[in-house]
Specification:
Helix content is 50%, strand content 14%. With 307 residues, the chain is α+β, with helices and mostly antiparallel strands. The protein has 2 domains: 159 residues, no CATH class; 138 residues, no CATH class.
């Protein structure tokens, strides 16, 4: 017999003025944390650390509701090559929603737990499963940012585009790598992952002069004119040189510990190159098609002649 199920991701967000409820589309709602989530049934199943996480300062949540006969029922709406259950599809959409909001505007907004529940006949909710999948670690520069309604509107469009990209191709690789990077706390690994995402999008098929060509492609793609492209080129080229130092095993303890401002800037610059690139691509169906297909290389090589 079909029942109503709910997947809830309580959100950490340092501000208290998020305008909710807001329908992001694709079945994902940004709303207030349901009262039952902070009830005895849920709280007693949590570790002490997560109980702290669910204190009164957690006010908002991402939520997906659906009907299913059982926890693992396949979702016919999933367009991937392999079968996905409605439960896993709900989790996937919540992760993509958090990523879409971050691409629209990076901030402190993130989730650390996922709660799966089933509605009883009398209308109350029963906890079925709880997991801690890891959470997005925002950059210090982004902590003061507030999410406005316009940002959520942009995130809704980005979410639709992300879900339509599919599970294969350069954009999909970049998105998965970006999420992994954002959840990583080790400086060298996080930094390298941002560059893996950039290489998925801009890496030339011919690897000769890769540092120069990568930097040039990023610069002319993001630059509004030749002057701004020149600044981005210098930023990207320096960033790639540090990527090379990290990947070849150079000790970067001094950079991380004694040159904190420098390491923080390098990280922020790398994340912003990835974020701005994906935001521009996902907002334009023609660019999505170009970066997903065989025309990517030709398009990128032609950018210096079209700016």
């Amino acid at each position: 017999m079909s029942a109503k199920w709910s997947t809830i991701a309580p959100l950490f967000y340092r501000w208290r003025d998020l305008e909710v409820p807001f329908d992001l589309g694709c079945g994902v709602l940004v709303g207030a944390v349901p009262e039952w989530v902070k009830g005895k049934d849920v709280v007693s199943a949590l570790s002490s650390d997560v109980r702290e996480y669910l204190k009164d300062d957690v006010r908002y949540a991402l939520a997906v509701q659906y009907e299913a006969d059982c926890l693992g029922q396949p979702d016919p709406s999933w367009k991937g090559t392999e079968t996905m259950s409605k439960r896993k599809h709900a989790r996937y959409r919540i992760i993509c929603a958090n990523l879409a909001i971050w691409v629209a505007k990076p901030s402190s907004l993130c989730f650390g737990i996922l709660i799966y529940a089933k509605q009883r006949r009398e209308g109350t909710w029963k906890l079925i499963e709880l997991c801690e999948p890891g959470y997005l670690e925002p950059h210090a520069n982004d902590l003061p940012n507030k999410i406005e309604s316009s940002d959520l509107e942009s995130a809704g469009d980005l979410l639709s585009a992300i879900l339509n990209v599919g599970s294969r191709g350069t954009i999909s690789v970049a998105l998965r790598t970006l999420w992994t990077a954002l959840c990583e706390r080790v400086w060298e690994v996080r930094y390298l992952l941002f560059w893996v995402a950039l290489e998925a999008l801009f890496g030339p098929e011919d690897a000769r002069e890769i540092s120069y060509r990568m930097s040039q492609r990023v610069a002319f793609f993001l630059g509004a004119d030749r002057e701004s492209a020149q600044g981005i080129f210098k930023e990207a080229k320096e960033g790639y040189s540090w990527r090379s130092k990290a990947v070849h095993g150079m000790r970067l303890d001094k950079l991380r510990k004694k040159e904190h401002e420098k390491s923080a800037k390098l990280m922020y610059d790398a994340q912003e190159l990835v974020r701005k690139t994906l935001k521009k691509i996902l907002a334009d169906p023609k660019l999505v098609k170009t970066f997903s297909g065989p025309g990517r290389e030709r398009y990128l090589d032609g950018l210096p002649f079209s700016t």
